[in-house]
Amino acid sequence: MSVKTGGCPENCGYCPQSAEFDTGVKAQKMLEVDEVLQAAQAAKQAGATRFCMGAAWRAPKDRDIDKVAGLISAVKGLGLETCATLGMLQPDQALALKAAGLDYYNHNLDTAPEYYQDVVSTRQYQERLDTLQNVRDAGLRVCCGGIVGMGEAPVHRAGLIAQLANLNPYPDSVPINNLVRVPGTPLAESEPIDPLDFVRMIAVARITMPKARVRLSAGRQQLGEAVQALCFLAGANSIFYGDKLLVTGNPDANADLQLLRKLGLRSRQTQEEGAAPAANAAQGCGCGCTCG
Question: Does residue 215 have an active-site annotation?
Fold first, then answer.
C-alpha cells in the first residue's frame, strides 16, 4: 500500500511518482492510521501474510519515521508481518523502525552497478548499498531485488543477480519486477523483455539464493497466466497482490487466487493450518515502481 504517494525528488526513469515526470500522479499527504489498518485487515482476510507500506521519499525525515512507526505498530497488532519501503535510511532511523515492530525493509538495487546511472542520476549505487547495511545492522530482514525490461543487456541482468547473491547475507526476499511502462516516464517506450528471459531471471535468482523468498512482483499483469505459471515452476514462491501495486494496476486478488488454485499452489499460511489453497502473497508494495 502506498501510504504517501507522489512528489519524490528522485529521477528514477521507471517511476511514476517522481516529481520530475508528468504521469498524472499528484503528491499526497501520508495516510491516516485508520485507513491503513482497514487495508491491512482486508489483505489479511484475503490471505496475505505480510503487509508492506511504501512512501515516495528520497530519504525520510525523523518526523516521518515517527509517523510510519505508528503505522507499523498498528499493522503489527493485526498479526501480520510488516514491511516498509521509504527510501534511504540512516542507522538511527532503521533502529527506530525495528523498535516499532518492522520485520522487513525493501530497498531494491534496481539493476547492475554499471547500468545504474542510465536509470537514475540523483543518487549513487553505493547509497543503496549503505542503506541495506544500515537495515541489516538494525536487525531488520532485507527485501531487495530489481527490475528488468529497462533497456538493459543480458549481461546487466546477470550483474544484478550477481550483486544480490553476493550480498552478505543475500536478501531474505528477492522481488523480480517486470518494468511497468508508465506514460510520462523516460522508460515508457522501453522494449519489453522476452517472457522466457523473465522466467530465466526467476530461475537464476532461485539457484543463486536458494533460501530466499523469490517474489514475482510488478508487471505480472503483462505476463499472463502461462508465463506466471512458468515462473512458479522456475522457483518463484511468493507474489505481491492487491488492488494496486503502489500506483500502477495489479491483477485482481480473486484472479490471483484462481490462478494459484489452478496450479495447485498453497500459501505458507494454509500449509501451516491445513486449510484450503489461498494466495501465497504479500500485500503490494516495494515493487520497483517507487524510489524505495
Answer: yes
